[in-house]
Each structure stands twice: as C-alpha cells, then as structure tokens.
Amino acid sequence: xxxxxxxxxxxxxxxxxxxxxxxxxxxLARLENSTDFHRGDEARFPLDRFQPAAGLMERIQAIAQNxxxxxxxxxxxxxxxxxxxxxxxxxxxxxxxxxDPKYPDCAGKVEWMRARWTSDPCYxxxxxxxxxxxxxxxxxxxxxxxxxxxxRNRTVAVPSPPPPPRPQAAFRRDLxxxxxxxxxxxESLSFMKKRIRHLAQQWLRAAQRLEQKLAGRQRDxxxxxxxxxxxxxxxxxxxxxRVLKGGPLGEMVQWADILAALFVLGHSLRVTVSLxxxxxxxxxxxxxxxxxxxxxxxxxLIYTDYHGLQQMKQHMGLSFRKYxxxxxxxxxxxxxxxxxxxxxxxxxxxxTNWGYxxxxxxxxxxxFPHTPDNSFMGFVSEELNQTERQLxxxxxxxxxxxxxxxxxxxxxxxxxxLAILNKYMEIHGTxxxxxxxxxxxxxxxxxxxxxxxxxxxxxxxxxxxxxxxGFPYEGPAPLEAIANGCVFLQARFNPPHSSLNHEFxxxxxxxxxxxxxxxxxxxxxxxGKPHVWTVDYNNSQExxxxxxxxxxxxxxxxxxxxxxxxxxxxxxxxxIQHQDFCTMSSLPPSPxxxxxxxxxxxxxxxxxxxxxxxxxxxxxxxAPQAWPPxxxxxxxxSEPQHTCTETCRQHGLxxxxxxxxxxxxxxxxxxxxxxxxxTEYEMNHLYPAVAENVHECYLQKEPLLFSCxxxxxxxxxxxxxxxxxxxxxxxxxxxx
Length: 736
Description:
Residues 193-220 form a coiled coil. By secondary structure, this protein is of the alpha/beta class.
C-alpha cells in the first residue's frame, strides 16, 4: 500500500517523541524536589505550577503505550499484507533485472538503487523497501528507466475523453486580488504592492486599449506559478532588509510589473517567496529532492529567477528535465548561448556560477533588450497625461541637477565632475544615511536622503539634469528621469565594459562584448539626443560643454512605448500566446547523418532585388508555422569584427535567433555568392559563418548555440534579421 512504510514510521516517531516528553517531565519532577530549585526562587517559579505533573506523566505514558501497540499491530498487518501479496503475485520476491535494449540504463539504475536507496526518504515514500522488485517497480512506474513488470496489475488503456475546453483569459478590472496573492511579511513585498497600487489605473487603462487592439481574439487562460527565488530565506534575501536603506530596487520594480501584467491579462496566478510554498505547489515528495514530482505539474508556465531555478532543480528530481521547457527566467543582464550550453561552456571556458542550464536562450528574460538571444521582458515607467506634461515644462529649473546613485560609494572619487557641475547647477542627491551625512557627498550638494518613490519623482519633475557616474548599470531610474522631462548625462566607457575587462560583469553568463559602451546602453542606443548625452568624463572640456548645451536645450518628457504599461502588456501577451519551448522544431540532419536517398528541399530563401541580402521567397510555397512569421526574415552577412546584433542594427533591423535554422544550410552560402571549398558541421556559437581567407564554411551542429552575440575577426557570420514594431523592438510588425 502506497505510504504504508511512512505510516509505520510516523507511529514510531510519535512513540519516540512521547518517550522524550516523559523523560523531560521526569527531569522537571526531579528539579521540583531538589532544594536548589526552590532557593530564593519561590516568586519566579510557583510550586503549584508542577502539581499536576504526576497525573500528566501517567496519561502521557498510557498514550505512548497505545501508540507503541498500534505501531506493532500496523507492523504485523504490513508483514501479513506483504506475505499475501507475494503468494498472490508469485514471482514478486524473485524479480530479475530485464535485459531490454529499449531500456539500456535499467541495470545500472538498479545497481545504483541497491547501494543508495536509503540516501533519500523519497524512495521509501514511493514504496521502495530494499527488495529487487521494489527497485524495478519504482524505476518503471515512477521513473522510466526500466520496462513495466508483466505481473503488475495494470488497467487496460481506455481512450480518455477529450479534455474540456480551457477557460478563456479575460482582462481584469481590479487589482485587489493580486495584492492578496502577493502576501505580506517582507519589506520587498510591501514595496511591490505600493508600486502596483500606484500604477493601478495606468495598468487598467492600458488593458482596455490592448483589449480593443486584439478585437475579441481568443486567449487561453494559463495557470502560472511566480516564484521569486531571490526573496526566499534559503537564498539569503539580502534585498528585503535594504529596501529602506538605499538598496537596489530594480529587480523588485520589474517583478512588481510582471505580476501586474500577468494578472491584468487574466491568467491564473500563484505567488511564492518561500521554498516550502514552492515544494507544496509543485508536489515535491518528502525527502531530499532526488525523486520526480508526485503528480503532473499543474502549471503551464513558471516565472522565476536564477535562485528559484536552482531550487527547482534541487527538489524536482527528473521532473525538472521534463518540465524545464515551461520555465521563464527573469535575468537582469542576460545569458548568452555560449554560457548556457553546459558542455560547450565547460570546454570553451564560458562556464560561470550562473550559466550552463541548457535552456532555450529565449527562456531567459531581460530588463533591457541588450541581446536578442534572450526575450526582452522589461518593466514600466509612469506615463504622464497632457496636463502633467505641461506642468512639468512650466516648472522646470534649468539650473537644477539630480545625481543618480543612492549609495555613498558611488560618489567616491567624483569630486572633479561635481566641482565642474557645481559651477553651473544646484546639485541634489538622494543618498541614504542614518545619522551623519555621508563624507563622500560634498557640502555643496543638497542631500535629501532616501526618498519615497513619489517624492523622488517630484524631484525629477523639477530638475533639468539627471547625471550618472558610471554605476549602477542599466537601472530603471534613467528612464523614469527622461519620462519626467530630465536630460540624462552619462559617461562613455572606452574601452566598453565587458566580462573580459570589468569585475562587475565577470562571472555573469554574458560577455557583453563591445555592447556596454556607457552606463546605460539602452538609453544611448535606443533614445539618444536630445534626451540622452553620452560623453567622455575624462575630458573636462567635453563634459563642461555638454552641461552648458543641456542647460539651453528644451526637451519634452519622453517614454519609449515598450516601457509603457500597454507596451509591456502587448509584449507579454505575445510571448504567452506564441512562445512554445516544449515543441521546438529541430535542425535538419547534417550531411554525415543523411541517408544517400535523402534530398535537401530547395531553399525557401531568395536574393533581394538589389542583391545585397536574402529574403523569404514569395514562391517558397506554404510558409512554415513559425513565430515570428518568416515573412519578416532578412539574411545579411556580417563584417568580421561585428556581431549579428550589430549587423542587423546597421540595417535598421533586429537579430532574430529563431530564424537561424532556415539559413543553416550549404545552399545559403551559394545563394550569397560565398565560395566554400569545404563545409563542416561543428559546435560553435559563431556558426553559421565563413572563413573567407581560406574559403571554409561552417554550419551549426547544436541548435542551443545559435547566437546573435559574439564575433571573431576570422569569420563573417550569416545573420538572421527581422523588422520590428515602432517602439517595440521585441516584436516584428506582424507578431501581434
């Protein structure tokens, strides 16, 4: 009987606990009779407190005896049951390991179970008791390494009725239920709930606009688990205690907006910030995490972070591999394919503490669209109505600057810049302090201390300039400042920062080669002047000239559409509807694995009218089911020193890694007039590519390594590019 051994164990543990309780009562009784116990302590330990002890001990002793008797009877029943089962099932105690070529790992797994089945209580939970038969039952019915045993009772498979139609997602009009789901008990949760309440009306108005845009399109309601791993006690939760002390809030801003977007879109949510809740929601069996889940995963999608991903892997056993395609990892700085592929990362020196998960790279979701290999999740900034915009323009103080940085360490060594800025502007800071003013902040700076979000926003609405000193990287504050009519001034990094030359990026699963050219690359590349100025801070004349020009420049509040509530809802809706990593298309077989009779189908690509690149051919017949749609595809060849991300951007396009499979073919080189003396399939995150000086062409052997990132001066890469919606770089024009 499933759980029988556990029942017996529970009774024994109860008996042990009662016995321990009796021992402690006995100690108290002895203390009561000792002279030392009473000396001078009558007031603190009244004697009548222990008067009922004798009667209570008798009752506990009687209960313990009853539990012990029950445990013995259960033990006898189980033994008789097992004996009868063996007689009825005949060969149950004589199980032999089957030699079935369809299950090559069976014998090895049985050998492992013989030696280690007691290493995790979860095996006993599933009925393993040390016998050969119990090993084979577990390995064939709970896991799938051995064939089913012929003598096991199995019901004949009856065609199951078709599943009932899924409930449809309906846009929600009230966020009160979401606030309940988030829960209480942490400053970080309070911060997120305040943010959701503050932006509630903007979310609801955005939902109405998107609903009109979708024009009644059917949307299945998804069951979604949101597990914020970095807020669990097991991961250390260093964020919650620092919410009110100037700690980083970017991650919590993003999580609050993700929760709001998923809820407003009408999906069914569960929110966890503890490991115990996670185990309960997933159906983790008792033990140390080596066994699969007790039932099929009840969630269509799981949004988590790297901490949560690690926790799921530790507690889901083989189920993690089965269900990992449903996971979406919120990953601030991104994970490039070279770091994600475990074998490749280990062989080529890309292994870090955070990568090597072998997920589809698009399952990682970033704060900014810095690598198209990952999905751009983003966050939102508050939109202004026309009245607010006019009020801000009227009240701007052209000689007022606010420094980006709540921690005193950011100000250290910046005296030179601050002295120049102080010649022209009144400088304001929001540096956290408890009692004394931080010595790193000069006396001429008006420091407001850490401000609540709405007060900080009021400060930005008056200021002309929001200035960054190189850190923190890629936070939400510059976008908020620009949205409130500030000009953002930041330092240009020369050379660009990356994992190769800067400690901050070292150890992260991304090289960011040549891409971190400033404190906020998105603001530099996607917004630019007049809202964003990127200058060389080491050049005092350039720095001073920029300040003078900014003071004379009139700018309106500006917010990119993709950082509005509607833009984020649109993006997440598209991902949920179209991204499916559980039924991914595979690569065509390489020449070495093709049979002689196999013929490659003609390429669906054709040379563009101006013969500079390839496009999807109108005569290619029925287009494959793909998202983004293949009609948006353009194939360009990179220069040796450029990544595919840069190559596509130069042509006003975005690199689209899902299209690599359409150009990973020999004939594509021919169509682009590239001469190949040889063509090889290899694992390399830069392939497909050509080494032109030796006329060697290379195709990708491992789909997980298709990457828009990376370059080598030896290669020119084949790059899949696509168009994008105005203000929404994550989606092509026909992607919604």
